[in-house]
Amino acid sequence: MHDPSIVFLNHGSFGGCPREVLAAQDVIRARMEAEPVRFFVEELQGLMDKTRDAVAGFVDCDWDDLAFLPNATTGVAVALENIGLKPGDEILANDHEYPACLNNARRIAERAGAKVVIPRLPWPVPLDRGEQSVIDAILAGVTQRTRVALISHVTSPSGLVMPIEKLTAAFKARGILTLIDGAHAPGMVEGLSIRKLDPDFYTANCHKWVCSPKGSALLYVRKALQKNFRPLVLSNNAELPKTGRSQFLTEFDYIGTSDYSAILAIPAAISSMSAMLPSGFAAVMRHNRDLTLRARRLITEAIGSTPVAPESMIGSIASIFLPPRGDGAPPSTRPPTSRYGDSLQERLIDRWKIQVPVWGVPGTPQRVLRISAQLYNSFEQYEYLLHALRHELAAEHL
Ligand SMILES: Cc1ncc(COP(=O)(O)O)c(C=O)c1O
Question: Model's pTM, two decimal places?
Answer without folding.
Answer: 0.97
